[in-house]
Amino acid sequence: MPDYKPREKNVIREILQDHFSLFEESYDTQYSKKYGKYRIIHIKESVEKFIECGDYSKGIARIKCTNHDCKYEYFRPFSCKSWYLCPSCNQKRLLLFSEHLSENVLLKLPHRQFVFTLPKLLRVYFKYD
């Protein structure tokens, strides 16, 4: 029988579920001049994805061990895959991005950086020597 692990309470999710509609209604009057009239569309999409993140009723993947003797399986809810708003998805994406940088982009060399600073009054004495 697959394991079912109910989602833990998330304070951010509760706040957004309870108060985002008030923010959405007041966006045009209070924030649209400073941040843009159409930004609320993207904010609303991100918040809706975050609220549905990890909800078993919105879709799951069944993960099963490939070992024929094991037969272990469990359900994993779909994630929102968003940056910044969702703490778990953001952390996962940052780890994957840093792994990509270290494996594929940066050279396999030991990197060191030394920065020496001098007070401005002493820089004249070190300018030529």
Q: Tell me about the largest β-sheet.
A: 2 strands, antiparallel
Count of discrete domains: 1
* Number of distinct beta strands: 2
Kindly state the mean pLDDT as a whole number? 85
Shape: flat
Rounded to an integer in angstroms, the radius of gyration calculated over CA atoms is 24 Å
Distance between the termini: 76 Å
* Low-confidence runs: none
Q: What level of helicity do the residues show? A: 40-55%
Strand content: 5-15%
Give a brief description.
With 129 residues, the protein is mostly helical.
Would you give an account of this structure?
The protein starts with 10 loop residues before the first helix and ends with a helix. Helix 1 runs antiparallel to helix 3. Strand 1 and strand 2 form a beta hairpin. The chain contains 5 helices and 2 strands; from the N terminus they run H-H-H-E-E-H-H. The model has no long low-confidence stretch (mean pLDDT 85). The protein has 129 residues and is mainly alpha-helical.
Which SSEs are present, and which pair or pack?
Blueprint: H1 11-30, H2 32-35, H3 39-52, E1 60-64, E2 73-77, H4 87-105, H5 123-126
Antiparallel strand pairs: 1-2
Helix pairs in contact: 1-3
